[in-house]
Amino acid sequence: MLHRLDIRGLHKDIYSGHLKMSGLSPQGDRVDFTNYYMTYNGWPYFVISGEFHFSRYDCRMWEEELLKMKACGVNIVATYMFWNHHESTEGVFDFSFDNDIRRFITLCQKHGLMVILRIGPYSHGECRNGGLPDWLFGRPFELRSNDSGYLKYVERYFAAIGEQVSDLMLEKGGNVIGVQLENEYMSACSPWEVTVAQNREWTTSGRDGVEHMKKLKELAERAGIKPAFYTCTAWDNAPYIDNEMLPLWGGYAYWPWIFWNPDAKEHPPTYGYLFSNRHDERNNSDFDKKYPYACCEIGGGMQTWYPYRFIVEPESVEAMALVTIAGGCNFIGYYMFHGGRNPIINNTYTNEQLTPRISYDFQAPLSDFGQARESYRRLRLLHYFIQSCNDELCRTIPAIPEGQDKINPTDTEKLRYAVRAKGGSGFIFINNYQDHVEQTIKEDVRFEIMTENGLLRIPGGERGLTIDKNLACVLPFNMELSGIKLMYSTAQYITRIGDAHFFFCHWGMQGEFCFGEEYDIMDSHSVQYEKKDGMLVLSKMEGWRAWFTLISFKGEAVKFVCLDREESLDFCKLNISGVEYAILCRAGSVYADGNDIFIEVQGDKENEGIALLSYPKLEFAGTKNGEISYKGTEGFMHCYDVCADFPRLNYEISKEYSNRAEVRFDANILDSLTELYLKVDYFGDIGWAFINGRLIHDNFYNGDSWYIGLKSFAEELKRNNLYLYISPITNEGMIIKYESTHEKIEGPPAGTAYFTSVKMLPEQTVVLRCM
User: Fold this and answer.
1) What are 248-284's pLDDT values in tens digits?
2) Where are the domains of the chain?
3) What is the 3-state composition of the chain as percent helix, strand, coil, each rounded to the nearest 5?
4) Using CA atoms, how far apart are residues 683 and 81, in angstroms rounded to an integer?
5) 10 Å Cβ neighbour count for 263?
6) Which of 31, 180, 492, 499 could cross-link to 231 by cystine, CB 3.0-4.6 Å?
7) Residue 435 · residue 21 · CB < 8 Å
8) Backbone angles phi and psi of 315, in degrees to 5
9) Which helix (H) or strand (E) holds 322?
10) Helix/strand/coil (H, E, C) string of 470-509?
């Protein structure tokens, strides 16, 4: 089917200086805002923010987790401060160990990551009482208001935070550029966990509107918390201070809260997968004209709640991010990007009642023990594209084809697409994913885009595109790459490494590249090409890595590499002492720090090997926890084998009952491993893990494997064994469960509780010291 779009005259007035949101460091670094994007030192800056809660993670492992986030393209870390984590006892503040916000921020700065600090005082985040301390319950004033009694405690809390972070603000040379005040103010609240279930009371959602936000800002500034800009959550008409606060948005594929209502039977498909222009001048809205469309809670996953169990599909995370960007978002924030674990404070669980006691995994791109999910690998490719095209992408304007705003989430037949363009060049965004609805394959898809330079047909040959189910992609047109103009590509752009540009083909799509016929091919592999109608058209067969080299106008050789979809998920881009490398490696995570490359390898065999490809060639000065050997070249990629050193692992799983087990092993082995995962597959209601009677982890059954990282508990495990218990289902139909967003299955029958598999998976991080 042919789809037409005219982008001539596409325009948006972009201006700055109207918002009181800017900051200047002593070193001269400046953060500012236009009405369309954030700027850094005067240039457009596409924000990729990832939420990671420091107080929900083992502080001994913060640094490697931040490096993993950076390796995925995250440039800003957002984090909540939960009041009840820091002042569980009235007047006694704790900023030590996992609560050490100062150390967390300085680690971010060490690795070039800026920070948005979400200080509340109400934070929610599925935390006990929304983060409010128990001792505030029943006080003779109203919370989340301008009552003087409440503000007295907030002022003291903000002052304590200020003592830790005031000199880490941008204006003092630090990396904290933003601070969020409150959360979902006057639109959401939380149950008071100190009350009984039969008489559940709730925290108030707030009452004093903008005046309360002004008061919170005043108290924050008085405490020395003076960032470049303040933010707030904007959905449900939450109040914000006009011109002085950046309203932030979000969206999720799963809404567990709807099943608080026992009459709710089905989850509706959401609107987050439909294209819309977030900067449509026809709205004639001062808000749309004044503020960038910025997000802090694009669902990187979702926390399972007791009444609603599900598995978040990686396609859903990728598609929502892509659709959000297509609508004109140049400031995307994921909640969560990294999972965590609720601390037990004063022998009190700090979770919200319907979520797991300990696990706040959120099915995020990085799990509550740091495992990289497929959503991490998919977002990594999208983020590399954003960073490589940062300036031109920020300046492109959304063009939503006529009729796209009429598509309903249940519509499975119409193609969903949009364009962001400026000056005749830009990107086509296509989404064939919808939560809770199964899409159809779209055959023979063609585009005609009328630009200032004439009509562009994509693809130009006889064969149209096949858009597979759940596919979401970005295709460039009229893009300049190292002095060569790419008229269009049906492969998605990843990034540039030196003289090479990397692309990948989505499943079901044939890669096609179109240039002017004035270019000459120097060499190629797995590529067919021909010159006709004034164009040089190159195509590749699906499932093969292909490359070709063109000669630019300057006589320079420019390489183009096209990976298949499976291979692209192994692609990462590392900066090693100022030099960028393309790495292909099927490892848990691959990241870098200075001269060192870190490769997470899982396995249960000594010297298990994995393949690593690089461009350009890597030279090594030494290794740790393993070895690397050079195997030659494949095309212009350099090939290596990486072997991890795994100590011999012996363990015993004792099962006296079908739903109870004890795990015995020599925990001293944890000293020589990066991590040791316990992988549990079971049927039942809830999985519980204990050491010497202390709950260390839990899991709501949803059909997926349950992973527990044991490294954090090494000292306890040297003295005690770990044991598992599976709670049985007590009532038929008590779980509302989806195996995926498209297929509903029944939960386990009443009385069910048994293990199907319990095994250990060691993980070793091989460190490669580069020369």
Assistant:
1) 999 999 999 988 777 887 889 999 999 999 987 666 5
2) 8-392, 396-568, 576-647, 651-762
3) 20, 40, 40
4) 36
5) 5
6) 180
7) no
8) -60, -30
9) helix 314-326
10) CCEEEEEEEEEECCEEEEEECCEEEEEECCEEEEEECCCC
Rounded CA-CA distance 479/426 in Å is 7
* Least confident span in 463-477, 509-523, 539-553, 554-568: 539-553
What's the pLDDT tens digit per position in 437-486? 999 999 999 999 999 989 999 998 778 999 999 999 999 999 999 999 99
Q: Which CATH class is domain 396-568?
A: mainly beta
Question: Given a cut of 60, is residue 365 above it in pLDDT?
Answer: yes
Residue 498 CA, distance from chain mean position? 27
> Higher-confidence residue: 146 or 523?
146
Between CA 458 and CA 425 the distance in angstroms is: 13
The single residue listed with the structure tokens 């995994």 is 361
Confidence label for 199 from pLDDT (cuts 50, 70 and 90): confident
Place 200 in a pLDDT band, splitting at 50, 70 and 90.
confident
CA distance 299 to 282: 29
Q: How far apart are CA 583 and CA 617, in angstroms?
A: 10
Q: Helices in 501-645 by DSSP H: which ranges?
A: 565-568
Is pLDDT above 90 for 355? yes
Asked whether the beta carbons of 30 and 23 are under 8 A apart, the reply is yes
* Distance, CA of 714 to CA of 412 (rounded, Å): 50
Mean pLDDT of all residues in 301-316: 93
How many of the other CB atoms lie within 10 Å of CB of 148? 9
Distance CA 15, CA 291 (A): 10
- pTM of the entire predicted model: 0.97
Report DSSP state, residue 552.
Answer: -
Residue 679, C-beta contacts closer than 8 angstroms, at least 6 positions apart? 705, 706, 707, 757, 758, 759, 760, 761
Q: Are 3 and 445 in contact (CB under 8 A)?
A: yes
| Residue-wise DSSP of 341-401 | EPPEETTEE-B-TTS-SSEE-TT-SB-TT-PBPHHHHHHHHHHHHHHHTHHHHHH-EEEPP
E strand map for 484-608 = 484-489, 492-497, 500-505, 512-516, 521-525, 527-532, 535-540, 546-551, 557-564, 571-576, 579-585, 590-593, 596-602
Kindly indicate the confidence band of residue 739, based on its pLDDT and cuts at 50, 70 and 90. very low
Q: 192-230: b or e for each residue (b if 16 or more CB lie within 10 Å)?
A: bbeeeeeeeeebebbebeeebbbbbbebbeebbbbbbbb
- The whole-number pLDDT of residue 635 equals 87
The Cα–Cα gap between 337 and 340 comes to 10
pLDDT computed for residue 756 by the predictor: 96
Classify domain 8-392 at the CATH topology level. Answer: TIM Barrel (3.20.20)
